[in-house]
Design brief:
The complex is a heterodimer of chains A (267) and B (272).
Chain A: H1 19-39, H2 44-62, H3 70-101, H4 109-124, H5 127-138, H6 142-166, H7 170-178, H8 183-217, H9 225-234, H10 238-266
Helix pairs in contact in A: 2-10, 3-6, 3-8, 3-9, 4-6, 5-6, 6-8, 7-8, 8-9, 8-10, 9-10
Chain B: E1 2-10, E2 16-25, E3 30-34, H1 41-48, E4 56-61, E5 64-65, H2 71-78, E6 81-84, H3 96-101, H4 110-114, H5 120-132, H6 148-161, E7 166-170, H7 178-195, E8 199-202, H8 206-212, E9 215-220, E10 223-228, H9 235-242, H10 247-268
Parallel strand pairs in B: 3-8, 3-9, 6-7, 7-8
Antiparallel strand pairs in B: 1-2, 1-4, 4-5, 9-10
Classes of the chains: A mainly alpha (267), B alpha/beta (272).
């Protein structure tokens, strides 16, 4: 009566078949985690001291002072917004040819390798490091910030654009190619319509990121609202700093909301 | 018109898709290409317009040797060959009109196609073709707003916009229902007669192939195993192409669905 026997089924382990290896790897991971955590030194006295400063910061945040430094805040904001918009536009314009060149289904191998290395360089250098370099080269101020954000935008946009181009429906490109279209015409008629909505969406997303980054790189001297924020913190004017942070949050939320709306609309 | 001589194609993976295929097609002749999946039907028609690069053999369109062309020469040859696809392969975010006009891409320079300023003669031709396939009112709709049958009509209009000397048709009905399939096959047949156009139709529906083509080529494992009229395609021949199967039953079933379809229409009309 074999057919009456209950057949037990268990999901077979997918990644690591051998149970000894599986438990061995888990054990090593846990031991490493415990050792790593215990190696972090915590100075509790310093933490206690810091809590007080943090509290003062928060108090300043709760009574933001927009007026006494308003002129500095305004010029910082204008600088940041200018930096954000110009660097996004220039960055996107540069990233389009590089992104096309970095798509394996459109570009020949040498071009592909060159464009991919440009992307790799741009992405491996963090914005702050690039900003420090550009501040050293071109001096304090928004020009260094503009260059930094443009540089970062190129890597980000070109990589995502290239990946999107590689994911297009090849059938549509094949059909356009079969009509006798040239390479440029295939790009214009088969690739562009397929990637355009995403390109617009990513550009708006990058506009968001660039605004946020502009307030960070200001701290290392690249101008904008970040520089104003840095100055006010240095002077212990936490109420002004709170006002600046609130303005940044509001602008980021506005950008987030409106870019989401535009992205839905272009689909 | 089209001559294929000793065509062979071996993919990089080592798969031998085509082996010593030879045939020729005369003007106005509609040829059905049948065979099991993986027999090399798609590869064969893509070798003709060089979307797939053949490894050996020669292909002539009129006096032009298609194999060995490159660059502008290849593009000029491709514009003489219209192609219609299984999944329509329309550019979905472009309008119907842009899709039809893309049939002229081999003729116009880049800036004209980029600015969508095609010569008036091309636009007139596109409107005439849309009227011919019954889609005049849909010219400015986006291609992805159309139904399957309508999309395939746009695909046909795009191919004809090229003023082709040959049509390559890859599984035109595979994504369509039986009734629309027949309408599309009938339309293709009519157009080929009107323009005295030769066509190679890659199709796996044997009954449709027999009904709408004048000649059938059977492909099996990359080799031509049958070349004759639809009437010569007997059960024995089908068995030699596809393997053992009850062919009479298949034909009878096909008849049944036809009856069921007409019954449905009569019922809707209140006749039954």
């Amino acid at each position: 009566m074999a057919s009456d026997a209950v057949r037990v089924w268990r999901r077979p382990p997918i990644l690591i078949r051998d149970w000894r290896w599986r438990w061995g790897i888990y054990a090593v991971a846990v031991i490493y985690l415990v050792m790593a955590v215990s190696s972090v030194e915590v100075n509790w006295a310093r933490v206690y001291e810091g809590l007080e400063r943090g509290w003062r910061f928060l108090q300043g945040f709760l009574v933001p002072d927009f007026t006494s430094r308003w002129n500095d805040i305004r010029s910082g904001l204008v600088e940041s917004l200018t930096m954000t918009v110009t660097s996004t536009i220039v960055g996107v314009l540069i990233s389009i040819p590089i992104g096309i060149g970095a798509a394996r289904n459109l570009a020949p191998l040498p071009v592909y390798l060159i464009c991919r290395s440009v992307i790799a360089i741009s992405r491996s250098l963090q914005e702050i490091i690039v900003a420090i370099l550009f501040v050293a080269m071109f001096g304090f101020g928004p020009f260094a910030g503009f260059l930094t954000l443009t540089f970062a935008t190129v890597g980000f946009m070109a990589k995502l654009l290239a990946e999107d181009i590689e994911d297009i429906d090849e059938g549509q490109a094949e059909a356009v190619r079969a009509t006798g279209a040239s390479w440029w015409q295939v790009v214009n008629y088969a690739v562009q319509p397929q990637v355009m909505p995403r390109l617009i969406g990513l550009s708006l997303y990058r506009l968001d990121i660039n605004f946020r980054e502009s307030s960070v790189i200001g701290i290392v001297g690249a101008g904008g609202i970040g520089a104003t924020l840095n100055t006010s913190i240095d002077r212990y004017e936490y109420d002004s700093a709170g006002a600046i942070l609130l303005i940044i949050i509001v602008i980021v939320m506005l950008a987030e909301y409106s870019s989401g709306f535009v992205r839905k609309w272009v689909q | 018109m089209l001559t294929v001589r000793n065509l062979g194609k071996t993919y990089k993976t080592g798969d031998r898709a085509l082996n010593d295929v030879s045939f020729s097609v005369d003007a106005g002749q509609v040829v059905g290409l049948i065979g099991p999946s993986g027999a090399g039907k798609s590869t064969l028609i893509r070798c003709v317009n060089r979307l797939v690069e053949p490894t050996s053999g020669k292909i002539f369109l009129g006096d032009t040797e298609l194999t060995g062309l490159s660059g502008p020469g290849l593009r000029t040859a491709r514009r003489r060959i219209g192609m219609i696809f299984q999944e329509y392969a329309l550019v979905e975010r472009l309008t119907v009109m842009e899709n039809v006009l893309s049939g002229r891409l081999g003729y116009v320079p880049f800036w004209r196609s980029f600015s969508r300023r095609f010569p008036q003669a091309d636009v007139d031709k596109a409107f005439a073709l849309l009227a011919r396939v019954g889609l005049t009112d849909h010219a400015d709709k986006r291609a992805d707003a159309l139904s399957g049958g309508q999309r395939q009509r746009v695909g046909i209009a795009r191919a004809l916009e090229q003023d082709p000397e040959l049509l390559l048709i890859d599984e035109p009905t595979a994504s369509l229902d039986p009734k629309t399939s027949r309408q599309i096959m009938r339309l293709i047949g009519e157009i080929c007669t009107e323009r005295n156009l030769p066509a190679i139709i890659n199709i796996h529906d044997v009954v449709l192939a027999q009904a709408f083509t004048q000649r059938i080529i059977g492909l099996k494992a990359g080799e031509v195993v049958f070349d004759g009229t639809p009437d010569e395609l007997t059960d024995d021949v089908l068995t030699s192409i596809y393997g053992e199967e009850d062919w009479t039953a298949m034909r009878r079933n096909e008849g049944d669905t036809e009856d069921a379809a007409s019954l449905e229409i009569e019922r809707l009309a209140g006749l039954v």
